[in-house]
Amino acid sequence: MSTNPFMVAVELHFPQLLQQVRELTRHNGDAPSSTIKFLVCVPQSLSLLTGMVTIADVATHVLVADATVGMYQTLDGRRVAIVGSSIVTKEGFDGVPARSVRIVMTDTFAHASIGPPDSYQCLLLHINRPFVGGVAVPEDMGEMDCATFRRYLAMIRAYPESAAVFSSLDVFVHDVFEPTTSASKKRPQHYLTPRRLRHVWTKCVDLLDDTGTLDTPLLAPTHVQHRHLQLAQAVESYLMEQVHDVVFAAVVFRCRKQDDAVRHTWRLLEHATPRDFNIAREFQCEQRQAIDLIANTHVECHSPLAMLMQLKRALTALNDAISRHLVRHRTNTPRDASIAQYLSTDDVLDQLLFVLVQVSKQCPAFPLAAIVTYIQEYHFVNSSVSALGFALANFQVALEWFTSHSDDDVPPPRPVVVEPVPPLAAVTTSLATAATCTTLRVMGSAPFAGQIIRDTVRNISCGPRWFAIVSDAGDVSTWGDASGGRLGVTLLTTTRLDVPTAIPQLQHVVQVSCGGWHVLACDLNGHVYSWGSNVNGQLGLECPNVSMVPTPTLVEDLVGTYISAVASGDGHSLALTSSGQVYSWGSNRFDQLGRDLQQGWTFQVGRVDHDWGGRNLRFERRCGTACSDMVDQVAPGAAMRIAAGSFHSAVITRDGALFMWGCGHSGQLGLGSFMDASVPTQVLQLAHDEVSVAHVGCGAKYSCVLLASGHALIAGQLVDHDRVVLSSTWFVKVPTPDDVDDAAFASHFVSISCGPAHCAFVNVRGNVLMWGTNAQGQILPQDGTVDVVHPPRWLASRVAHVTCGESHTMLAIVE
């Protein structure tokens, strides 16, 4: 039987509460009862002003998922939002500002009234105070961070009657480390056993209690226990900080065999993905803050409590990261809103197991067993029923999981390495270069479908309903939909150009890249020009309040840096320097800029601070190469090619490695998971020394790569509306039909292009393989019979270049 009066009321009135949940979910038109989950929030008993809790009080704390992701209704018609590890009151609650209460821990709840056919699921959320009334209390009465500890200690020592107690502690520590007589020359460990230190701590706390330290007639009786625990914690921290170095080193030495076993298991799991730990797709997200906090626990913390609080902060960061991830990817559709997305205790443990494996990569000698043992033995204040105790319990279970699994017990991660593939036989092609192409064919929706344009081109690009080409002389011409200034020319009487029109401001251009609503171009002088939409700062201009720039404008932040290539995403931009550095700007909603930014977008051009040196599976510098030059394995790595998808980015390095970052919600990063990546992350699936990436292309929810061997791979989701053509979190080979002449060279590809939902691959014979949506006729003539081209089809021949836009495809064909 619970001693918390609120929990007693929950158990007493649960049948009536369950009936109200049934009525509310039925009124909302939710899914069948077997899928309905609801939450009961239980405030800490110390936060309650009275022991009398009514059913109305409980109803205010029973939550059912609302129509908006992250929002919940109470049984009495109010609303709250769950944000990370906090619950914020919304409509129906009095008080400004809104009350934010902290989730201390979660637990499942079983009751006899929950059963077939009503298969409801109830989760308890223990919170640090009620939504209405009550008082604010600490999440854990034994918690005391370093700053609070030092202030509290100064207050205690200010009492004259406390001086003798702390003097005795100082003498004890002095005798341990600097013995003055032969009789006292004993090993420090003899004095520093848990039993001996607990005895010293208990005696000092009792003496301080007896002297009435911090007693006051104004102290509420309900908080006397709280004061006692803080007093006890201050003494523990004072004592353990002074002996920490010796004690913790001894514990590390004592736990070395157990830690060796843990590290062995970590090595077995170093290539494991969140799926290998049964982490649900919606909860797969990057956990950099939690990883950093855990990895630095034994470096930054110098007492058991400090370490325990660091581990608790890591779990809080883990929960907050998942909450941000859910908000970032929410769609607010009825289907999403019907699913209550919250972490159970098992979900937290699964996340923690995966995070600890990542910690081992950052800190290979991380002493997990020693840290857990140190806290268990030398944290004297009882935290077993608190948030700190919940944190410690998770790490204890994780430690047991890693130590109890042998080589045979640990399921091997699914294969992540593409085995070395021999390069296809070298061939010579009779195709002319792109500069001699004289026919451009446009496929897609009207009015540009079937358009044939004769011009000599060096480079082509295609955006949503508009096109750009670079002539052999370096001139840029555009045509198509002129909305948002995308064509780079001023139009007074029309919103569309049906034929290529030169942009007079641009000369000696070598490349043009069309994004969602903006365009980038770079010239022989290494300068970058941008025009079109600027709502996300994607033009990189010092005019953040200007939403559109209709004519090419020099990106002055890049002047002085020679830019050799540019790439445009849906709302972000990339630039590659001749020295192999990468710059980014624009939208950063999914961290596609690869920079440490707090805001969701920036117009300021900045360098992606990363070492572009690829690693093999042994985490050694790669010896492969994506170019003909030899790669210096000692010199810093350099980027060689860039690509931008709708919300993700890619780089190929000079040593043939592939780095991806940004949105990974559809598996488009090829990292074996659905996680986003805020920093460039190497695709270790392609890290074998004999596997070298030569080209990369990015679509909306997928990515394609071309290996130096000529093989094409694809990862992510190739989707046409609700139909999924391909779904893989790993790179898999693009299927190639055999209905083509000279089949031996059919799959030896030389270039690729990715639109939002369709892609094209050109082989050495100039045949083009196309795959994906045909909703606008961008692959085959749109006659209503073929909305999706699947599997891929060989369609055109003698193609030198291809570019895929949202609703069109443009081919450069050799005559």
From TrEMBL:
The UniProt entry, under Pfam families, shows: WD40_RLD
Q: Which residues form the VPS9 domain?
A: 256-411
**Does Protein transport appear among the keywords?**
no
Tell me which Gene3D superfamilies the record gives.
Regulator of chromosome condensation 1/beta-lactamase-inhibitor protein II (2.130.10.30), VPS9 domain (1.20.1050.80)
Keywords noted in UniProt: Guanine-nucleotide releasing factor, Repeat
Q: Quick check: keyword Repeat in the entry? A: yes
- What ranges cover the RCC repeats? 474-525, 526-579, 580-655, 656-709, 766-815
Report the domain of life of the source organism: Eukaryota
Under PROSITE patterns, the record lists: RCC1_2, RCC1_3, VPS9
Q: What is this protein called?
A: VPS9 domain-containing protein
- Originating species: Aphanomyces invadans
